[in-house]
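Reopening this one. Same input as before:
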Amino acid sequence: MSQETRQKLARRLAWQKAVNDPVKEPRNRLAILPQLRRWQAARLAVDFGDFLADPAMRPAAEFFLSDLYGDRDFSARDRDAARVLPAMARFLPDSLLRAAADAIELAVLSHALDLRMAAILMCRPVPGAAISVEDYANAYRETGFPRLRQHQIGLILKVGEALDSAVKKHGVAKILRASRLPAQLAGLSELQKFLERGFTAFAALGGAEGFLKAIGQREEAVAGRLFSGDPQPFAQANSSSR
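Same output, byte for byte:
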């Protein structure tokens, strides 16, 4: 791993630690935050319905929903990265290292944006009320940062592209299997499992270009409708890339 990559990873992990600290960042304790994450995950599961119905795309779609878009806590995986990525750099291809680093940046950026949205949602007349499409769209627009939203989508695609690149390299599957036990013994299994799930999902895809292009077009269209105030920002999600 190059010195530049190490420094970039260190910055991302420092940001990850700060943005998830409930003392430094009290918005982590907002009651609406878990509901917001569940709402977003449920919305994406509906929008990914056609991908999930396609046997070839289903594994990759499930990986994106659980490991990139999911409402789970990724902090254990990202703490693993701080300890294991420098050592794994000796035998893992750069594509997998990039996938891990970009996934960390994606998780941190998504969490930071979610914190801002959660604070806005708490200003509703009934803060704990169920989140409506209108509530979500208003909070999304008020949060702003269209360039960061574009970067968020770009990171999702970069993770997919890196995993697809790793699939095409001879011997990577064997290397991942060989590193499974050492990772478990060292208590670093979260990152290992993430890489294995991603590799397996994209190996089943048999070429990610069409899948990633569809996701990029779809999510960019949704973001555009949200920022423009479209009353039905998600209505055309499944058809926007066709």
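So the earlier flakiness isn't reproducible anymore. For the record, The mean pLDDT is 85.
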